[in-house]
Amino acid sequence: MRKSARRMALTAFAALAATTLFTAPAGATVFDQGISVHHDAYVAQDGAVTLSGTYHCEKASPVGAMQIKATVAQEGGGQLSIGAEQIVCDGQERRWVAHAPGAFANVHPGHAVVTAELQEVRLSGLMPRSVTTVAKDTQDVEVRES
Q1: E strand or H helix at 12
Q2: Distance between CA 137 and CA 22 in Å, rounded?
Q3: Which residues pair with 37 in a beta bridge?
């Protein structure tokens, strides 16, 4: 019985160590990275959702690429994550826009919480090896009809 408890403790410790090793805090980068969410989001009559904000980033590492993931959550509406269009990392502040067709969205006018993450995707050949969030912003927003 004692061996089993020790094995469980070591397994839990190993899982915690792996989580700590592979989870970087939002500001853990040597580059100047940032992202923000605008206070308004839009839903069209067909249900299409548009989220936006601003970002700035430096060039990704030679074995990586940068992307933006935006998530909108509403009470009774669930959660929807969408990617923004191609981003440019040149240190300049730029606008990002993420759009989801109505077929995939369950968003309605009213209060929502939007989280935007600026992520670095490190590649191994053509496949992603890891995704690290280098900047993050969460805002209460008003979803308006467009």
Answers
A1: helix 2-22
A2: 20
A3: 53
Q: How many other CB atoms are found less than 10 A from the CB of residue 93?
A: 10
Q: Residue 72 and residue 56: Cα distance in Å, rounded?
A: 21
- Between CA 89 and CA 104 the distance in angstroms is 29
pLDDT tens for residues 19-40?
333 344 443 444 689 999 999 9
Does the reported pTM lie above 0.85? Answer: no
Closest residue by Cα to residue 112 from 72, 56, 53? 72
Strands of 84-109 (E only): list them: 94-100
Residue with tokens 């839990």: 12
CB 137 within 8 A of CB 26: no
Domain residue ranges of the chain, discontinuous segments joined by +:
26-145
CATH topology of domain 26-145: Immunoglobulin-like (2.60.40)
